[in-house]
Amino acid sequence: MQWAVLFQDKNVVAFFLLFIRFSSLFMATPIFAHTSIPMNVKASLAFFFSVVFYNSMPPLAIDITVSSLIIAVLGELLFGLAVGLILLLAYHTVTFAGGQISFVMGFSMASAIDPQSGISMPIISQFLSLIALMVLFSLDMHHWILLYINESLSKIPLGGFMLAPSLFDYIIASASRMFMVGFMIAFPIIALSWLADVIFGMLMKTMPQFNLLVIGFPIKIAISIVVLIATLGSMVLILKGEVAHAFNALEILF
Fold first, then answer.
1. How remote is the C-alpha of 246 from its chain's centroid?
2. How do residues 120-136 score in pLDDT, each as one tens digit?
């Protein structure tokens, strides 16, 4: 009889919606959304955590009809995408900065497939993306996400997520913040590159035999790499602050 209770309509629908919530979060949030993780592994993790968190969720509060189930599934998918978008905007701050750094270094055409997103990006952006991924692991971001899901079960009932106007306002502000902070991270290298261009221009006026392609570009690349190594610690601290700010902002979904 106890096993029969688990397979009642309410319990089956509640477990299915919980599985959808975990699946959408694992598909959108950093670390879990890494393309190197096979899809069957993500699905297995979603099923496992659905079983683990099943006893901690409140009773299902929606009516079991076709229309209500469709709305509930779409709401759970939107919830996972909203959480993932907020965290990814903070995560991609350094990749945007890496794109600016690659441009001034002359590496904008030297691109490779990023294992995190599966898209082609400059090698400096890919390097900073891997650094950011290690920072997320050092912050136990994967544990934060699981704790956030546990908290969301009591704040947002299954199938009860609704998009709020404050969410759109925050996403717009967070996108502009990503560009501003990313440019701030890349500014030391950009400024020194511009200064090097001014110096090279003066040298070419005074020394016409100065070959910018042979001498100037390697010097700019060396200067940029030295400054990048010197400012890498500051980049990590800024990224930690942005990720913490984004995670605290997830309360607007409640």
1. 10
2. 677 787 888 888 888 88
Q: How far apart are CA 43 and CA 48, in angstroms?
A: 9
Answer yes or no: is pLDDT of 18 > 60: yes
SS3 121: strand
Collect contacts of 189-193 with beta carbons under 8 A, ≥24 apart. 189/101, 189/104, 189/105, 189/224, 189/227, 189/228, 189/231, 190/100, 190/101, 190/104, 192/223, 192/224, 192/227, 193/104, 193/105, 193/220, 193/223, 193/224
0.85 surpassed by pTM: no
SS3 12: helix
Helices and strands (DSSP H and E) totals, the chain: 9, 2
Compute the C-alpha angle 12/15/17, nearest 5°: 110
